[in-house]
Amino acid sequence: MPKASQSFLSKWTLYDYIVGGFFLLVLLLILYPLYWVVIASVSDPALVEAGKMWFWPVGFTMDGYKEIFTFTSLWTGYRNSLMYTIFGTAINLIVTVTSGYVLSRKDLVGRSFLMAIFLIPMYFSGGLIPSYLQINRLGMNNTIWAMVIPTALSIFNMIITKTFFQASIPDELLECATLDGCGNFRFFFSIALPLSTAILGVLTVYYAAGHWNGYFQALIYIRNKELFPLQIILREILVLNTLNNESFTLMLMTNTNKLQRHQLAQLIKYGSIIVASVPLLILYPFMQKFFVKGVLIGSVKG
Fold it and tell me: What is d(CA 174, CA 182) in angstroms, rounded to the nearest whole number?
């Protein structure tokens, strides 16, 4: 063991070991379900259902992934989800950061009234039918705009952003910049934004995860299969391989074929979770430092 690690552990008390062990146990409890899904997606589903798989794959097989990737629409779903995530997150950041900054300014006339206007729809919603009628009248049905415009602003994220600006951008900094001839727009783009990388990282993670995992809006507003996001495509693949048990064709199959079809559906179920989760699992490690720092500043201070 390195000397630095030995000196660090030598300073630990019994309390430190108890707390460290407790949180290590919590970490394992959180990671194990994800690990279990990964190994279940490449294991024999019969052995998985029999409870014979715990810590490593049993009866290794890639049939589930082979079946998933035979659907050409999967790549269309990936493309659409990537487009919705990038484009939608960009709109979210623009709207959230600008509104949060403006509402954080103490010299804004009617700030309390505007804040109340923002908070009302946070607690009271018009419901699904009025929302659908509104989107339909605006001509956004069955277009990319239906996926990014209705969710352009999260009130909760805007409040976090507002709190961040109030806690991190002192009034004295604005006064000094004003004395040097800096206007509001110049201050926002040249001073406030460069000092806000932490909250921008947090908002990017929040919004990107929401867009990538989103499926309900597509179910309501999108009918063109060429615009379906990845989550809808995976749902169709899963439903196609599970509900077909009610079809007349499967009624004519032997029990062995039905069992094989059921087992394949189980592999597809686990494989779909992995396929949908990989991009976010890749994104989180790079955004973690911004995520932790931004949440602490935006929620504790102010």
Answer: 9
Block means of pLDDT (10 residues each) for the chain, length 302 residues? 55 80 87 83 76 79 77 81 90 92 84 83 79 86 88 87 84 80 83 84 84 85 86 75 48 57 73 77 72 55 44
Q: Which DSSP string corresponds to 124-161?
A: ----HHHHHHHHHHTT-TTSTHHHHSTTS--HHHHHHH
Residue 99 tokens read as 């509104």
**Domains of the chain, first to last:** 62-302 (1.10.3720.10)
Give this prediction's pTM. Answer: 0.74
